[in-house]
Specification:
With about 525 residues, the chain is α+β, with helices and mostly antiparallel strands. Among the domains are: about 140 residues, no CATH class; about 220 residues, Beta-galactosidase, Chain A, domain 5. It has 17 helices and 19 strands. The strands form 3 sheets. Strands 3, 4, 5, 6, 7, 8, 13, 17 and 18 form a 9-stranded antiparallel beta sheet that branches. An 8-stranded antiparallel beta sheet has the order 9-10-11-12-19-16-15-14, with no helix packed on it. The longest helix has 21 residues. The protein starts with a helix and ends with a strand.
């Protein structure tokens, strides 16, 4: 019923009248999109085949019909309606222009006037940003009538976004739509009122969602990167119109960009936390170059809850923030560790581009390099408040994370200490469980998820694991546990198909018995060529 009411209202002459306004004849500004297009994806699209996640759409060369084949609500539908295909087609240059115009023609013929699915505010925002950034690909080669039709459609969608952006389901969507509205409004003549509306919305949402250290409240590195790029683009669009950018936008760019660069690893990609991906190194580099080195975050993002330790070639990033909610990623206490360009230990990533059960599984604690409980009788303890401390001296760098555990109203705690020695060739960990009932403690397990590029082999005595990295470095993981297990894992951190990986598993039952309800586990990860 709601969908029918939306359609009736959108189709009504009253709402269509609200979308009328000056017809633009050009764009004032062409935003720069630093994300790398994929040529293979572009060639597949030109041939009429689209593969997004687990969905495949094949229009057999009739590109205009692809809009009718993608199931509403699926990943392919979102990919098409956001016009993400424009980014990839750009990799083929001018030879992709006929395909871009055919896809644009198909969209206009079906959705130019109104559609609840195609005119979803988030889709409109992403579509407008893509069209502004790549309008020559769509407009060049067309006649004046075609150019007028495309630009007028963009202007009408911009006015619709100004009316509907506040109805976003989530805060991050409202923020991205506000910035998209600001960009489109400044690019298109006659949309100045919409641009002002976008700036005001962005001011409010940035105040609510951006923490003092520049981190977004989602604590998602990929979302942080996209936000920093979108703020930067909005700033450029304002300046392109000859206006003085508002101070809040410049200040947000400095903070958000510094926080995005905080997650950069030596391979140029992002560390994987809280539903993020490794992401695009070209986009990461673009943001890193745009920020003032004096504003860069070095070792501690206080308000976002991340610690960063660097020594020699080694990099360790630890998540010391609280869990954000029962339906979000439970990565508190996990960490990323890499040596040079080779990733060693991290989290499993985000299955958002796969079926729903993938995302649900990868949100669990077991999909993070952290502490969790194996299934068993009774209810597993709940994880409560988290606190953290940091120390640095000539002997090395230390981060201590303490997490409350609540089991049958009995207060208990898990403490993790991570120590990185000078030179970066030696990482040591201490795990401690206090006051946890023995039946529950016996179900405790620590998981260390290895990156797919790491080749692991369990020693014969099962007390250590040898690791060979892609850069030919050798590392050894050992602990005070009687046995270690090497089990299967999966990696979705690159946004592509799930990749088989392995994980080192250390269980409480394999540890020496403790005293007074205390369990102590110690482990070390050491480079083999280190002195």
């Amino acid at each position: 019923m709601l969908s029918r009411m939306q359609r009736l209202w959108g189709d009504s002459p009253f709402y269509q009248a609200k979308l009328r306004g000056p017809a633009p004849d050009r764009l004032f500004f062409k935003p720069d999109d630093p994300f790398t297009p994929e040529k293979d994806v572009a060639q597949a699209i030109v041939s009429g085949r689209l593969v997004v996640g687990e969905e495949t759409v094949d229009c057999e060369g009739d590109l205009e019909s692809i809009w009718d084949l993608a199931a509403v609500g699926g990943a392919a539908h979102a990919f098409l309606q956001e016009f993400a295909w424009l980014r990839h087609l750009e990799a083929l240059g001018s030879e992709a222009a006929p395909a871009a115009r055919a896809l644009m023609q198909g969209w206009l013929d079906r959705f130019e006037k109104w559609s609840p699915e195609a005119w979803d505010p988030y889709f409109v925002s992403e579509r407008l940003v893509q069209l502004c950034a790549r309008h020559p690909l769509v407009l060049n080669g067309g006649d004046a009538l075609w150019r007028s039709r495309v630009l007028n459609a963009m202007a009408r969608q911009t006015r619709h976004l100004a009316n509907a952006a506040h109805r976003a389901e989530t805060g991050v969507d409202r923020l991205m739509m506000a910035l998209g509205l600001c960009i489109a409004g400044h690019c298109l003549p006659g949309c100045e009122a919409a641009a002002a509306r976008g700036l005001e919305m962005a001011r409010r949402e940035l105040r609510l969602q951006l923490r003092a250290d520049g981190g977004h409240v989602s604590r998602n590195p990929s979302r942080q990167l996209k936000l920093a790029i979108r703020i930067q683009t909005a700033l450029q669009a304002v300046e392109a119109r000859g206006h003085q950018p508002p101070g809040f936008l410049k200040h947000a760019m400095v903070r958000a960009g510094a926080m995005a660069a905080f997650f950069r690893c030596a391979d140029g990609r992002l560390a994987v936390f809280n539903g993020g991906y490794e992401d695009d190194p070209k986009a990461v580099l673009a943001i890193e170059k745009s920020i003032d080195p004096d504003s860069a975050l070095t070792g501690f993002a206080r308000h976002s809850g991340y610690h960063k330790l660097t020594a020699g070639r080694a990099l360790l990033i630890a998540d010391t923030g609280p869990d954000l909610g029962p339906h979000l990623f439970r990565s508190a206490g996990s960490f990323h560790f890499s040596s040079g360009r080779a990733r060693i230990i991290g989290n499993c990533g985000n299955g958002g581009h796969r079926a729903a059960d993938w995302r649900g599984a990868l949100m669990q604690r077991e999909a993070h390099s952290s502490f969790s409980f194996d299934p068993g009788p009774g209810k597993a303890p709940a994880f409560g408040d988290i606190s953290h401390r940091r120390a640095e001296d000539a002997r090395g760098l230390l981060v201590e994370i303490e997490r409350a555990l609540l089991a049958d109203t009995v207060p208990a705690a898990w403490t993790r200490r991570l120590f990185l020695a000078p030179g970066g060739a030696d990482l040591r960990g201490e795990e401690r469980l206090d006051d946890l009932p023995p039946a529950l403690s016996a179900r405790g397990v620590w998981r260390f998820h290895l990156h797919p590029g790491v080749k692991a082999s369990l020693a014969r005595d099962k007390r250590s694991v040898l690791l060979l990295l892609p850069n030919k470095e050798g590392w050894r993981f050992k602990s005070n546990a009687a046995t270690l297990d090497l089990e299967k894992s999966v990696y979705c951190g690159d946004g592509d198909k799930p990749t088989a990986a392995e994980q080192i598993v250390m269980r409480v039952t394999a540890l020496p018995p403790g005293e007074d309800g205390v369990v102590n586990a110690r482990w070390a990860l050491k480079r083999l060529d280190a002195a």
